[in-house]
Each structure stands twice: as C-alpha cells, then as structure tokens.
C-alpha cells in the first residue's frame, strides 16, 4: 500500500526494472528522471534530441469535475508506474505527539501553521487559500476570511517525513479527488523531499485521476462515514454499484482485511517440521493465492504489493521456491516504482535473491538424486 494518508485520519494504509537494477526505469530525459534523478538531466526532455521521451513533462491538468468541484485529469495515456506529479510541501510542520485513535489537536498546531504560512510569498499564500475546505458548524459561523487556513490544512494535509511525524500541504496534489478504487498512489520520498503521485493502473487520456483519502478495507457504509470529515459522499464506481454487487464488494474487502490480519503472525521464513505444521502451511499457501485474487478482483492496486508478499512468504514456508520467487519479484517491482529505497523494496529484493538461491539449490539437489 501506499505510505502516508491524510493527516487527520488515524490509519496508514499501504504501493519497471529487473531485479538488481534500482533505477526508475525511464530514459534519462524523462519526467521521472527530472523528479527522482535531477542530477542526470541538464535540459528538459522535450527540448532535447532524446526521442525516447516525447511531450511536456506535465501529464495532468486541473479542471472542473462534475459534482466534485476541481479535479485532475490525464493529458495523455498513462501506464502503471508513470509519475503523474511530484511536489514538495508548500507548508510542512511537526505537530505535537500523535495519539493513536485520536485526531491531531488542531488548537495546539494552529500557531505552527500560521507561522509557516507567514513565511510564504503572497502568490503561494493565495495558492494555499484557494484550496477547498470542509467547515464544521462552528467554523461556518466564523469570519471565513480570517479562519480558513486551519480548515484548509485539516482537509488537505498529509502525513509526511522520514518517520511519518510531520504534516505537509501539497496544493497541486490536493486537487486530486477521492475514489474507493483509485487509479493513482501517493508516497512521500524523503531523499527528494517530495510527495510522488504515480499511476497504479492504465489511465486513458482525459480520464480523471483519483487517490484515496481513507483506508479502503471497510464496507461502503463505513467508508462513507469516514469521508464525512471531508464533507462529501463518494460516488466512485465502488460506491455506486447495484445492491448485489455492493454486497459482494463489501464481502471481498472484509475478507481481505481479515486475511491480512490472520496472515501477519505467520509471515516468517521458518519451514514447519511437523506433519500437521506442513499441512497447515500448505493450506495457508493456497489461501494466500486466493487473497491476491481477491485484491485484484476488487481493484485495490495499493494493496497488490502487500498481497504478493504474503503469497511469496507463504510458499517459501513450504519450500515452493519457484512460486515464492515469482511472487516476491512481483512485489519487488511494485515497491520499486513507488520508492526504490523504501524498506519494503529492499526487503523484497533480498527475499527474491534468497528464493532464487534456494530454487537453484533445490534443482541441483534433485538433479543429483535423479543422476
């Protein structure tokens, strides 16, 4: 899953090159390189003779979205992994300690917020103040001109920073509307100091780009309740299905949430030695594939890498090294395009290499026995 969520949401949910090449997978003149590897690029790609990358680097535009105010739309076709936007925080603050199960105390961060805002140019202040904010009844009765900064920040800020201890505001990214089946994923990359938005499925030219504001492994009613804090009712494809399809979707998300929780304590590399332990591990391996299928069927691309990791580790426990390797590599590739230096990327790279070694050793031993 993508790392980082809206700042005042309690939960953090979780997203191509071949193994061993930790690069962005794009040509030196491409938009991805301008963002992630600026030291390798001297001039914009569309002004160079590098024909492997064509067109302007901005692949989105903000314009009215029916029923949603302003939205962000693709200006060309995008493939999974393509960078849509990379943006530094226009305001970034470190609030008081976050208490699990409760929102950040806004009163205690108000002075930090205004201090950061006062350092901005008039143009950047206007950019911040142009963002939409959902107002509480008390805020509705206040002078909006003098009290809009806090609601704007509350409605649009994200958790950021190397230790996820800071709050950041990203005016361009804030234009991306919510969907419970998003086609983009967002992650804070600390080494470049930017929040990067990538496509997680093919996006057609002119199609609206969506992110998620909330954890997605809840039923439709619960998701709508969580979205009340943003002041809208979701009308995405997952929330406007007919009753039977909605019930099936709710059941899938509930099953996925429960499966992730049930698998977590069993995700080790220890191989069961007892007959019963082996049978249980084999049953879990089969169930892990079912989990991956459910995640794909529900279109929860943010959870693909996590599900593939479960499949890989579950098959490693029964020494099915070929299957474990393939699923580990799939998870690695997804993590790589999200953040090449993240702990998840490094873990899956190491696991893939380890499983390949075990697979080769297994094949060698079998060939010796047959010989």
UniProtKB/TrEMBL annotation:
InterPro entries: SET_dom, SET_dom_sf, SET_domain_protein. It comes from the Eukaryota. SUPFAM superfamilies: SET domain. Pfam families: SET (PF00856). Residues 58-214 form the SET domain. This is SET domain-containing protein.
């Amino acid at each position: 899953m993508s790392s980082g969520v809206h700042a005042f949401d309690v939960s953090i949910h979780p997203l191509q090159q071949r193994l061993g090449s930790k690069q962005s997978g794009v040509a030196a003149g491409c938009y991805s390189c301008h963002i992630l590897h600026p030291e390798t690029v001297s001039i914009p790609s569309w002004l160079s003779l590098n024909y492997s990358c064509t067109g302007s680097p901005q692949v989105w535009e903000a314009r009215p979205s029916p029923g949603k105010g302003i939205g962000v739309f693709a200006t060309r076709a995008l493939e999974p992994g393509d960078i849509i936007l990379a943006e530094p925080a226009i305001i970034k603050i470190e609030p008081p300690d976050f208490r699990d199960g409760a929102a950040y105390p806004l009163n205690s961060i108000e002075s930090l917020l205004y201090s950061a805002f006062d350092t901005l140019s008039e143009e950047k202040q206007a950019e911040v103040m142009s963002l939409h904010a959902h107002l509480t009844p008390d805020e509705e009765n206040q002078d909006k001109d003098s009290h809009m900064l806090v609601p704007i920040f509350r409605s649009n800020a994200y958790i950021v920073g190397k230790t996820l201890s800071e709050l950041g505001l990203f005016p361009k990214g804030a234009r991306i509307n919510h969907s419970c089946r998003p086609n983009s994923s967002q992650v804070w990359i600390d080494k470049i100091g930017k929040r990067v938005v990538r496509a997680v499925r093919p996006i057609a030219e002119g199609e609206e780009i969506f992110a998620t504001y909330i954890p997605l492994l809840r039923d439709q009613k619960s998701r709508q309740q969580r979205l009340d804090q943003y002041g809208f009712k979701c009308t995405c494809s997952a929330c406007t299905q007919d009753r039977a399809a909605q019930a099936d979707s709710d059941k899938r998300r509930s099953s996925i949430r429960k499966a992730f929780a049930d698998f977590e304590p069993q995700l080790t590399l220890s191989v069961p030695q007892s007959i019963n332990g082996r049978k249980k591990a084999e049953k879990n391996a089969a169930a892990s594939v079912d989990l991956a299928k459910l995640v794909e069927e529900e279109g929860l691309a943010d959870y693909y890498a996590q599900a593939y990791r479960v499949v890989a580790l579950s098959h490693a426990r029964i020494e099915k090294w070929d299957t474990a390797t393939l699923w580990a590599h799939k998870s690695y590739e997804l993590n790589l395009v999200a953040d090449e230096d993240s702990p998840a990327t490094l873990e899956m790279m190491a696991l893939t290499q380890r499983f390949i070694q075990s697979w080769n050793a297994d094949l060698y031993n079998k060939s010796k026995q047959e010989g």
